[in-house]
Each structure stands twice: as structure tokens, then as C-alpha cells.
Amino acid sequence: MRAITDAMVRLLIGAPLHSDDKLTVVSLAAEAKLRRNKLTHKHTGLKDLFYALVKARTPVSDELHDSAPARAAKQQQDLARVRDDLRGQAQLLARIVHVLEIENGKLKEINEALEQQVAAQSAVPDLTRRRRRP
After folding, report:
1. Residue 38 in contact with residue 29, Cβ under 8 Å?
2. DSSP-assigned letters across all residues of 1-60
3. Residue 28 lies in a domain
4. What is the separation of C-alpha 18 from the centre of its chain, rounded to a whole number of angstroms?
């Protein structure tokens, strides 16, 4: 088992001693100096671990470093576009709030006028002011 895990490490770091640099079970078996069927039948857990490590591996290549300035430029453009969109939305919201304040003021005036009309129409005479004759 130690030979298999050492072989995994060598293959994953890209420094094989006894096999090609491919990340396969065949290469792992050759690197561990075992027959392939030992991995596929006896040590299946190690084989599965090897495949999981290969799948999770994120290789760092020169292409990623070369595209970093391009990615940064695209991110700057995206940021500028989002900033402009937000500025436009903020201006639109400010106009909407202004219109709503004006409409609210007009509605308050109408409400006060209606309350005065209702109060004038349904005025109940104050009977306490009338004097009784003795």
C-alpha cells in the first residue's frame, strides 16, 4: 500500500520514476511496480482515491497566468458597466420618489378638503347650547 500511495504522489506532482506521466490506473500500477489487476481488484479504495484526486486536481498552467491581464481588463469593463447601470437605476428611483412625494402632497390636500366637506354636511347641532326655559 505504501508503494501505491508513493506512486500516487509522484504521478500527481508530475515526477514519475517508472512510468509515463499519464494519470491512469495503468500508469499508477507501473509507477508502483505492480500489476494493474492489484489496483482494480484488490486495492479498489486506493484506485478510487487516485481517480478522485485526479478529478479534483486543478493544474496551474502558463495559459492561466497569460490570461490574467485579459481577465482583469474584462472584470474592469464589467465593473464599469455595472456601476453605470446602478447609477442609472439610482437616478430613476430618485425621480420616482420625487413624483410620489408630489402626488402624496396633492392627495393630502384632497383629503383635507373632503374631510371639511363631510364635517360641514354632517354637522350635528349642539343641543347643549340651547337653554331650557324654566
Report:
1. yes
2. -HHHHHHHHHHHHT--SSS-S--SHHHHHHHHT--HHIIIII-HHHHHHHHHHHHH----
3. yes
4. 45
Nearby residues of 53 by Cβ (< 8 Å), 6 or more positions away: 8, 12
Same structural domain for residues 71 and 102? yes
Q: Pull the grid cell for residue 90.
A: 439610482
CA atoms within 13 A on the CB side of 125: 3
| Residue pair 36/29 in contact by the 8 Å Cβ criterion | yes
Q: Is 89 part of a structural domain of the chain?
A: yes
pLDDT grade for 27, boundaries at 50, 70 and 90: confident
Write down the pLDDT at residue 58. Answer: 60
Is-above-0.70 flag for pTM? no
In single-letter form, the type of residue at position 128 comes to: T
Please enumerate, as own/partner, the contacts of 10-14 that have beta carbons within 8 Å and a separation of 24 or more. 12/53, 12/54, 12/57
